[in-house]
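Input chain follows. Return structure tokens only.
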Amino acid sequence: MDSNYRPRVLLVEDELDLVFLLERTLRDHGFDTSTCVDGNIALARALAQPPDMLVLDWMLPGVDGIELCRRLKADPRSAHVPVLLITARGRDADVFRALAEGADDCMIKPFGLAEFVQRVRALAGPLRPVSAR
């Protein structure tokens, strides 16, 4: 295994300040990140070249994060990719819905960056490329 391998995370969020903060944080912690602000574009990118994991905002232009998660988990090309859903919706029912729709984890905004990085690490699994899974 290449010890320089950096897990690929597709970050799908439409709040640009948060995109820059999360992208920088993930890169500083050893992840190779790409970003997208629209659910339709994210769907096409994730199916064309599945990342090692996805961070999806619930409320997005185009396809929302819940529907995006549902579609990705239903497609054999991306069904194995872990999804962390992030949302400003703070009710327990919203978290339960996110998990029921296929998200592997859900975080309520605002959240701490240290916890965010730990959850991404937990979902990204061992440092190996998708092709080796």
